[in-house]
Amino acid sequence: MNASIILLLPFFSALVILLGHRQLKGASVLISVGSSIISFIACLVLLAAADDENNNKLLLPFLDVGHFHANIDVLIDKQSRGMMFIVSFIGMLVHLFSLGYMKDDDAKPRFFGSLSLFMFSMTGIVLAGNLIMMFIFWELVGLSSYLLIGHWYQKASAAEACKKAFLTNRIGDFGFMIGILLLFGANGGSVNLDDLATAFKSGPLAPDAPGYSAGFTTAAALCIFLGAMGKSAQFPLHVWLPDAMEGPTPVSALIHAATMVAAGVYMLVRVSFLIEASPLAAEIIAGIGCFTALMAALMATQQNDIKRVLAYSTLSQLGYMVMAVGAVAMAAQHGHEAHGPNPGHPAMFHLYTHAFFKAMLFLGSGAVIYACHHEQDIWKMGGLRKHMPVTFWTFAIGTLALMGLPYVTSGFYSKEGILGAAYDSGCSILFHAGTLTAVLTSFYMMRLLIVAFFGKPRTESAHHATEVPMIMLLPLVLLAIFSIFSAWDGFATPLQALKPAHERPHTTVLVASILAFLIGTIGAIYLYRGKDKDPVNIKLFANKFYFDEMYAVIVRVCQDRLAWIVTALERVFVDGLIVRLPTAIIARLGAATRLLQGGHLQGYTFLLGGGVIGVVYLVVFVLPRLGH
Amino acid sequence: MSVLELIIALPLLAALAVGLGAPARAASLGASFINLILVLATTVQYWGKTGLAFTYSRPILENPSLSFAVGADGISLILALLTTLVMLAAIWQIEDRPPIFYVSSLLIGGGALGAFLTTDLFFIYAFHELALIPTFLMIALHGRAEPAQRKAVAWKATIYLGAGSLVLLAGLVWLVLEFSGGSKLTFDLEALRSQAQLNPLPAAKQAQIFFVLLLGFGSLVSLFPFHSWAAPAYATAPTPVAMLHSGVLKKFGLYGLIRIALPLLPQGAHVEWVQNALLLMLLGNILVMGLVTIHASRLDDTLANSSVMHMGYIFLGIAAGTDLALKGAVILMFAHGISIALLFGLCGRMRNQLGTLEYNKLGGLASHAPAFTVLFAFGTFASIGLPGLTNFAGEVLIFLGNFTEFKAGTLTSLQWTVILALWGVVMSAVYMLRAYRSIFHGSPATGLFMIDPAFSQRVPFILLATTLLVTGCCPWLLLNLMKSAL
Amino acid sequence: MSVFTIEAGLALLGLALLLVEAFKPDISRRTLGLTAIAGTALALVLFIFAPHDSASLPGFIRPWHQLDNLALFYKGFALVITILVLWLTLECAPYLTRFTVDGKLGEMFSLPLIVCVGMMWMASARDLVTVFVSLELVTVSFYVLVAFARKSAFSLEAGVKYLILGALSTGVLVYGIAWIYGATGTMSFDGIAKALANPATSKSTALFGAAVLLCGLGFKVAAAPFHMWVPDVYQGAPTPVTAFLSVGSKAAGFVVLTRALDAFMVEGSIIGSEIQGFLLVVGSLTVLLGSLPAMFQTSVKRLLAYSSISHAGYLLLALACRESARFDLSSGSVVAFYLATYLPMTVLGFLGLGLMRANGLGEDIKDFAGLAKRNPLLALLMTISFASLAGLPLTAGFLGKLFVFLGLADHGYWGALSCAIIAAAAGFYYYFKTILAMYTTEGTDVPALAFSAPAKAVAGALALAILILGVYPKPLQNVLMSDRPAVVAK
Amino acid sequence: MITLGHYLVVSGMLFSLGLAGVIARRNIIIVYMCLEMMLSAANLALVGFSRFHLVHGLPDYTAQSLVFFTITVAAAEVAVGLAIIVALFRSKQSVDVESVTKLQG
After folding, report:
1. What are the backbone dihedrals phi and psi of residue A68, each rounded to the nearest 5 degrees, phi first?
2. What is the mean pLDDT of chain C?
3. A-chain residues within 8 Å CB-CB of D37?
4. pLDDT at C483 over 70
5. Predicted confidence (pLDDT) at residue C480 exceeds the cutoff of 60
6. Phi-psi region of A68 (alpha: psi -120 to 50; beta: other; left: phi over 0)
7. How far is CA A412 from CA A47, A339, B48, in A?
8. pLDDT at B237 over 80
9. Which residue of A has its CA nearest to C217?
10. Which residue from C271, C144, A612 is spatially nearest to D42, judged by alpha carbons?
11. Burial class (CB in 10 A: 0-12, 13-18, 19+), B21
12. Do B327 and A216 touch (CB under 8 A)?
């Protein structure tokens, strides 16, 4: 019942708004915000509900053919409840924040409608009890992301960005679908998550089952992972996320920082049984996550757009989480089973803490951008600390949380958890790269804070910036509180976000975390204090390793050029061989037969006489011999 | 007398009435509206049943035994629903056109209904031909191109479809000869089917006949490489004809394969050489035509080629032949019909208002015509295969249907094909989003002026879009009509 | 009154009209025409109610005449087509008289009656002598009719060509008859069948005779390679005559062919399989040589001529498919069915042409442009006619073709079937070309066309017949398929 | 002894000559004469066959009856044919076969 409210309320809200916004006018905003608040309340009720294990139950029918069922059925367990809380809570705050941020936008109803659509689809992913349902909502979040990134579609860059986001995700979904199909086939027609988990544990897909194929398991895991790569923007499908910042900032906060991009991680955690079953896949996943984390962090150090810095930081953190998924699976294969009752997954834990502070940072940046009249270049800001004190303090808290201020902020605990998992995985590269990423994270976040908020205002708009209205500050403050406290047991346990338990006390990890924080912070302060322009200039990082340019070439050569060639071939050969050649032959034949009809009487008599002789020859001499 | 006879006769009679001078718009709209109601009522009546219902037969010839026999099961009802919906929309969206537009739409619709609702091979074939003729005539006479060019296009379609129909006829004749029990030839599908169950042919022979039927039906559905008529024909055809042919009539070939070829020749499709040939051809549809579509630089080209491409998925369902895949194929037929009709209808409006469909001349229409944009988005995302719109349900069932027989570690050629075909899903997103972006996004191009259609002109498109949404969210509505295994 | 008496009466009426026309020059052509039509119609009515068994014939004629279903069907067929042709002549008269010497049409009303009688006798013929005589009665009359519009160079040229080639074919036919007689020692079909079923008969003599005879008959039905005269003659002849030639003369040829083949391909015939091979080869050749050149025609009349060749090909292919063990689709009834459906569509086509001509229009495809605008009804009727000729389903033409295809496929004659299919595909092309022209809207500032109420009625009835036969052929089949006694004597 | 073979050979030669003449000659009158020759060839064959096909010791007269018909028909043909040829001559001032080539294609 609860679940269906959470799922369907935003759906109807989206439907009503998108279809009838002209009639509804202002009411559409209220519908959307109201539905998000009610969803949040329903979600709180859900959190309080008793914990009946594995209540995978049918909510709505969808596909039902013979023995095959792919319905909308919800799986409510600790993970989904925790994730649901994040989604509905941040969703509600973003709705509130948008009330202020989008006040002057003409297309407000469209914005709120899309936001509701997003809430609906995200809820669907979180609650999904089977892979088909997950795929359905997976695609739908893609759609809402497309709509929201393209909110200001008149801008060419926004139009391109939303297209890019959708297409890149499509490539991921290509793999996801193959993965689903492989699992569907191998598991005898069921894609239910519970069934699959059982199948991998003791059913037809378990390593000791007859006909077990390690290659198949790896292939399935990697295909599914491809889906996560698209959604969670892992290398090499990461290119869409920075561009997605073309959307309104609240959207960036909700979708492209806190929730949707984390869906990949959530899904990987959901199918962790699959990843644990394949060592190779686990290593690849960890490796890709690790590479993404490091690469994005490097890129972030040279970005000047406040939202882009945050976007690359999100990429980097997502890489972290993915790495954690891989690392945990590797650790599990090495026999490092997590202990304790309900051990939490480090990736999920980081997802949880990251959601709050990253949403907060984005909303904070939104407030800054709003205050500076849509100025996004940090070098054109400066000194905002004095003009926008509340924003500054909340932003600072968020920054510190992301940097992982030891023992105070939630980010410290979750990051430590991931580094611990990397440490446990038995692969030292993961740990070292993770630590290096942490250093870089501290560095670029401190750079951002210093350049934007300290010093003197560098432009007029920064000079005239004033504090944003109450409705926008409220979410910031709430999120700032969560950024600090969310990792504390008193907070985390009722919210079903479970801290991961480590096997050994990790002195090394602890020290590494603290050192990383310090080195990064000090480096940034040393380099950027009081500077008016960037003292460091690394083109490679600033230009994001030239990935966009490379992809443009690939698309041009592999797709557009190929399309051109294929089109030409199709015109020449298919059309030529199937149509023009036979037509030409028949036409020639027809023209030839017309020659018989020359109009000359002699010709006709000749043909007639010849015909008689021919027929006689045929009938008397040829046909009898054929013995027809 | 069966209600199906009424359903078939109504549009034809309306066409006759309009031809004789009845008020064109009122008569056509009335007839197609009543028809939609009738089909809906019939569908509701069929709800929960299985097998052939509403049967009625009037013998017209004793030897060979021919009869005007009607009957409907879930598949035919779904397609009849598709036909009536698209027919209503196509007729509704006609504006300020001579009566021949209404007549031809009614004839195409009526012909398609006849083909879907009769159960005698003779009439199935005949009604389809009846629907084809107005298509050619309308392309040649009222096509959107210079007279010489549109005639060339119409000829190409005529030659292809004419030749295809003849090959099909040869295949049907072959079937009839093989499966007629007793001393009389019969064209009755049910009789042939029971005979096929009693005395199945050897697989090798089934394969031969199936292949002939595949070529015949295939060229009607623009199966690669017999597809090159389709794109120019749709791009040139007047809007209602493009809607009806690509949306409805083209489904006839697929319907025939599912209704006629597969039940009579159950092993035919699975003999290796036939299956491999089919897979190659459908990959041609998906991959080659996908790339060709990406190359297109005009909206009508994109839509026309995409419609060819999407046929590949339905063939994929037929190639798999499993219950799941076939039901998916039927749903996808329905979905594609609605979505492509929606897109062609909107495309026609755009051409009327803007006079051009070149991508590099368009842009930013979303600002001018928001409602139009939303409707177009429905079509776009449906053909991309977005969940929540019907196409997705069909596609996913087809894909799943190909994997029902699967051994971990070995992929059959069928399953490799599915994986390649999945890449086509990516391609269709590429070209549809490109189209959408260049038409609706960006800043409005100079000199273009387009406004939202009036509400009454929006109704047909809203009807189609709503259908996509409702059956997309509840595909079980359609699946419930096909309870028995195919 | 016996059927034979009716025929004799009709012949007398023809002669009488001829004389009246000659000696009473001021008689109006309308009176003449209406008399001829009325006489033929009366004959038709009497024929329907006359006793329909061979015993009713006068004794002296019985050895040479028979009245089986086939004969009765073709007799009725001949009467109907004659009425239609006479009426068409009347309808086209204003235009035709411009090309006749004295501006009169006398023989145009009397000769068709004689032709009709010839055709009716041909249908009943039991031996080759009767066949020859009645065939020549028809042919010689046609020489006159074809060349009737003497002032038109085309008509005259057509007449000359038909004369020379027709006479040549007559020579071949008689020579063939001579050799058949030589091989079997008899002229009657029954006797020939009996002799051919006897293994002692000289096979090569019989083959030679049959081949030459079939060449002669092939000319009459326009079988390739004896079809060259058809386009030229059809195009040159006055339109009503062309219609008569293409329907009546062809039907008569086929009824004789059916009878001859019944004898040649009798059960156990020593030359049966060779004749079948001959039919397949010639039939395939005919459909192709009829269809392929037709694609390039610019004159609708000539196009119809080619189409008539191609239809002859289908009929020949139908004849090649003798009764098979499995399916009771005898070639004779298929041919009869095909011809019965061929009648309305061809006559309707020529009727349209004639009406166009009567309104001062040409016969080229370009003259058809915009017809739909000028006279929608005529365009619709012509569309139905051409659609049926092309063999589109739901028209009568489709069923005939379908039966042919079924027969060929049943016997496994794949080569011939492919030829037939290619020809049918080509047929789509050229018929559609014409249909398309009618609906083309470019350059249609020409005035509307009008035509008379009877013309509308007749054309409408023909179109209706095409459509009704296309979806409800049962009555026609009932007429044709009531068990015909096989013309075989064991 | 003159056998049936002799008759048939002569008849065949006559037929062939007639056919050759029809094909080769350009004057329509002569062509027409050759056609008559072909009919005569057929008649000769008929009579020959009839003479050697004895029924009750007498020749079979059915074939000979056909010969009479053929002769009659030939006469009728000539009557009509010559009229047409005359008409042709009147209009073209020629009886050459090449004067009628308008209808073609």
Report:
1. -95, 130
2. 86
3. none
4. no
5. yes
6. beta
7. 25, 21, 59
8. yes
9. A612
10. A612
11. exposed
12. no
A chain contacts of residue D31, beta-carbon cutoff 8 Å: 605
Cβ-proximal residues to A107 (8 Å cutoff; 6+ apart), any chain: A151
Whether B and D touch (3+ CB pairs < 8 Å), yes or no: no
Q: How confident is the model at residue C446 (pLDDT cuts 50, 70, 90)?
A: low
pLDDT in tens, A340-378: 445 678 888 888 888 888 888 888 888 888 888 778 888
Question: With an 8 Å Cβ cutoff, are D22 and A601 in contact?
Answer: no
> Alpha-carbon distance A593 to A589, whole Å?
6
Check B176 against C406: CB less than 8 A apart.
Answer: yes
Count Cα atoms within 13 angstroms, Cβ side, for D40. 13
For residue B404, what pLDDT band results from cuts at 50, 70 and 90? confident
Count the residues in chain D. Answer: 105
> Among residues of chain D, what percentage have pLDDT more than 70?
100
Strand A55-65 and strand A68-76: pairing?
antiparallel
B97/B40 Cα distance (integer angstroms): 29
Nearest alpha-carbon partner for A418 in A432, A403, A434? A434
D1 has a chain A CB within 8 A of its CB: no
Quick check: D40 pLDDT over 70?
Answer: yes
Task: Find chain D residues with C-beta within 8 A of A594's C-beta.
Answer: 105
Q: Which residue of C has its CA nearest to A582?
A: C422
Q: Which subunits sit against C, judged by 3+ Cβ pairs under 8 A?
A: A, B, D
Contact between C414 and C352 (Cβ < 8 Å): no
Nearest CB to A181; choose among B289, B403, B408: B403
Q: Where are the alpha helices (DSSP H) in A256-305?
A: 260-270, 272-276, 279-300
Of A292-306, B310-324, C89-103, C123-137, least confident by mean pLDDT is C89-103
Q: What is the DSSP letter of D97?
A: G
B486 in A contact zone (CB under 8 Å): no
Say whether pLDDT at B41 is over 90. Answer: yes
Per the structure block, which two tokens stand in for B282? 């459908």
What are the beta bridge partners of residue B298? B358
pLDDT on residue A449: 85
Give the model's pLDDT for residue C485: 40
Give how far the C-alpha of residue C292 lies from the chain's centroid of Cα atoms, to the nearest Å.
21
C48: how many CB neighbours lie within 10 A of its CB?
11
Handedness of CA A274, A279, A281, A286 (dihedral sign): positive
B72 forms bridges with which residues in the sheet? B53
Mutate to test the interface with D, among A595, A600, A602, A615 (most CBs of D within 10 A): A602
Give B-chain residues touching C329 at CB under 8 angstroms. 63-64, 185
Contact A91, A32 (CB under 8 A): no
What is the reported pTM?
A: 0.89
d(CA B30, CA B464): 18
Looking at the DSSP bridge assignments, the partners of residue A58 are A73
pLDDT at res. A501: 64
Q: Exposure of C46 by Cβ count < 10 A (0-12 exposed, 13-18 middle, 19+ buried)?
A: middle
DSSP calls for A473-524: HHHHHHHHHHHHHTTSHHHHTTTT-PPPPPSS--HHHHHHHHHHHHHHHHHH
Give the pLDDT of residue A341. 47
What tokens does B182 get?
Answer: 């007793």
Phi, psi of A406 (to 5 degrees): -60, 135
pLDDT of C489 strictly over 50: no
Query: Do the chains contact at B160 and A170, CB–CB below 8 Å?
Result: no
Q: Which residue from B53, B182, B190 is spatially nearest to B482, judged by alpha carbons?
A: B53
> By mean pLDDT, which of A72-86, A214-228, B304-318, C34-48 is the weakest?
A72-86
pLDDT band at B87 (very low <50, low <70, confident <90, very high): very high
| pLDDT for the residue numbered A1 | 54
| pLDDT the model gives residue B486 | 66
In this complex, which of C327, C393, C436 lies closest to B140 when CB atoms are compared? C436
